[in-house]
Design brief:
By secondary structure, this protein is an alpha+beta fold. The chain has two domains: 4-229, P-loop containing nucleotide triphosphate hydrolases (Rossmann fold), CATH 3.40.50; 241-346, OB fold (Dihydrolipoamide Acetyltransferase, E2P) (Beta Barrel). It contains eight helices and 20 strands. It has helices at 42-50, 92-102, 107-121, 136-148, 166-183, 194-200, 218-223, 228-233; strands spanning 4-13, 16-26, 31-35, 57-62, 65-66, 77-80, 154-158, 186-191, 203-208, 211-216, 240-246, 252-254, 259-260, 274-278, 284-286, 292-301, 305-312, 316-323, 333-337, 344-346. The chain has a six-stranded mixed sheet, sandwiched between helices. It has a five-stranded antiparallel sheet with strand order 13-12-11-14-20. The chain has a five-stranded antiparallel sheet with strand order 15-19-16-17-18, with no helix packed on it. A hairpin with a 3-residue loop joins strand 17 and strand 18. The longest helix is centred in the middle third of the chain and has 18 residues, at 166-183. The chain is globular and about 75 Å long. The structure holds adenosine-5'-triphosphate and magnesium ion.
Length: 356
């Protein structure tokens, strides 16, 4: 079991409040990712769940039991950090089994558990090596092995892949997804990489400045971000934002651009300064005509996609994701259209106001 509930959790360091009103229910077996910019409180929140950090207010409940003031070793959780902290002088086998040995388990039982974890993680051929004889990804697998043998109620990961190179991160990401499927144990995973969050999570907690902005599935965050912060944080390249105001006949008037008939808008909420957001992959582009005309300042050609950074007079820089595009190049003129059904509209306080 591993249901984790946070009730009105808050944290201050001295006078400085770093987390507020944290209310979350993480279901047993769920893979939840905490994501947000540096300093938003992700690690602090994770450390309060493990007990490595004290809680200034509220409760942490695991499987119905209030463990807010329980010591870390009695919470039944396993934590994997960015630095693997393996013991350099002992073998992979002994590193994985170390915690069990300290706990006084019989050798045969330790051997069986180490063998099982090693099988799951593909470490069988490496068990007699020392950590320095392993690659970064292999070392990270050993650190995960050490956590698996403890059979925790939940695994907590704090940026476990950030020391690895890009290719290895992708590989480990897939391994962790498969590991989660296999163990079906609750996992909480901290990252500031929104791609990791999107690809790994059942549900994502988006944090900013110590507040939960949204807790939902990856697709819900992408399709229906609650505010401009989440809209800009989830998705790569980032959503474009354009200044806007109420237009004629229930439209939204983009400053320096078209009046858009965006579906699902309540006229009562369309007042004052507004913002229209559109993702780079939703903008249409053409040689001859469109809502906006601009000049491609830079074309980033990736083969699969081209990212066009287009300077539009009166609006500024607009990013366009052009899948498989070969025809458009830097310094050319391009015409852009903004399909209204793909647009997001935000009010003066940056809340998303179109319903769908
Ligand atoms: N021991 C401490 N004393 C005082 N302030 C702290 C302490 N630990 C963290 N903070 C502050 O709390 C805030 C949240 O820190 P935290 O480490 O949780 O951020 P994070 O989201 O994990 O960031 P990163 O992505 O950089 O790891 C930051 O403003 C940080 O400076
Ligand atoms: Mg951190």
């Amino acid at each position: 079991m591993g249901e984790i509930v946070l009730k009105d959790v808050e944290k201050s360091f001295g006078d400085v409040s770093v987390l507020r009103d944290i209310n979350l229910t993480i279901k047993d077996g769920e893979f939840v990712v905490f994501v947000g910019p540096s300093g938003c409180g992700k690690s602090t929140l994770l450390r309060m769940i493990t007990g490595l950090e004290t809680v200034s207010g509220g409760q942490v409940v695991i499987d119905g039991e209030d463990i807010t003031h329980t010591k870390p070793s009695s919470r039944g959780l396993a934590m994997v950090f960015q630095s693997y902290a393996l013991f350099p002088h002992i073998s992979v086998r002994d590193n994985i089994g170390f915690g069990l040995k300290i706990a006084g388990l019989p050798k045969a039982e330790i051997d069986a558990k180490v063998a099982q974890a090693s099988g799951i993680l593909g470490l069988d051929a490496l068990l007699d090596r020392k950590p320095r004889e392993l690659s970064g990804g292999q070392q990270q697998r050993v650190a995960i092995g050490r956590a698996i043998v403890r059979e925790p109620a939940a695994f907590l990961f704090d940026e476990p892949l950030s020391n690895l190179d890009a290719a290895l991160r992708v590989q480990m990401r897939i391994e962790l997804i498969r590991l989660h499927e296999r163990l079906a144990t609750t996992m909480i995973y901290v990252t500031h990489d929104q791609v990791e969050a999107m690809t790994m999570a059942d549900r994502i907690v988006v944090l900013e400045g110590g507040d939960i902005q949204q807790f939902d599935t990856p697709i819900a965050l992408y399709d229906r971000p609650v505010n401009k912060f989440v809209a800009g944080f989830i998705g790569s390249p980032k959503m474009n934002f354009m200044e806007a105001s109420p237009g004629p006949d229930g439209t939204v008037q983009v400053k320096g651009g078209p009046a858009l008939k965006v579906p699902g808008l309540d006229p009562a909420r369309m007042t004052g300064r507004m913002t229209v957001g559109i993702r780079p992959e939703h903008i249409r582009y053409a040689h001859d005509a469109g809502d906006l005309t601009g000049k491609i300042l830079v074309e980033e050609q990736l083969g699969s996609d081209a990212f066009l950074y287009v300077e539009v007079e009166g609006i500024g820089m607009v990013t366009v994701r052009a899948v498989g595009e070969r025809d458009f190049h830097s310094h050319q003129t391009v015409h852009l259209s903004l399909p209204p059904e793909t647009c997001h509209v935000f009010d003066e306080s940056d809340l998303r106001i179109n319903e769908n």
